[in-house]
């Protein structure tokens, strides 16, 4: 993207509460992919990968356990985790939880 392209990128604004009816909602169209993820306590997403992405997970509410490969990270509201999408990912809610995930194209 050139400096000119960056200047012409449309500014978008959303309220996350607009997506409460959709537990796994795309917040914006296009890149970087931005997802609001809501999970009930004990609910999880099956293990998967995003090999072309670097991912940032910001827990907004509750506690989320993020399994990355063989490691597990307990994340509480207000915590942010950045990781490589090439590894196996499996989030699970310890309590009712809401997170915002940004899946950016890898830069390498």
TrEMBL record:
Coiled coil region boundaries: none
Residues covered by the Cupin type-2 domain: 37-102
SUPFAM superfamilies for the chain: RmlC-like cupins
Domain of life, per lineage: Archaea
UniProt xrefs under InterPro entries: Cupin_2, RmlC-like_jellyroll, RmlC_Cupin_sf
Entry protein name: Cupin domain-containing protein
UniProt organism field: Haloterrigena gelatinilytica
């Amino acid at each position: 993207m050139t400096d000119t392209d960056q200047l012409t990128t449309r500014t978008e604004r959303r309220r996350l509460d607009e997506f409460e009816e959709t537990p796994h909602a795309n917040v914006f169209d296009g890149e970087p992919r931005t997802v609001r993820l809501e999970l009930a306590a004990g609910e999880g997403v099956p293990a998967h990968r995003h090999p072309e992405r670097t991912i940032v997970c910001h827990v907004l509410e509750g506690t989320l356990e993020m399994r990355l490969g063989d490691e597990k990270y307990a994340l509480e509201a207000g915590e942010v985790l950045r990781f490589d999408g090439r590894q196996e990912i499996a989030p699970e809610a310890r309590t009712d939880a809401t997170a915002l995930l940004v899946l950016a194209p890898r830069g390498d």
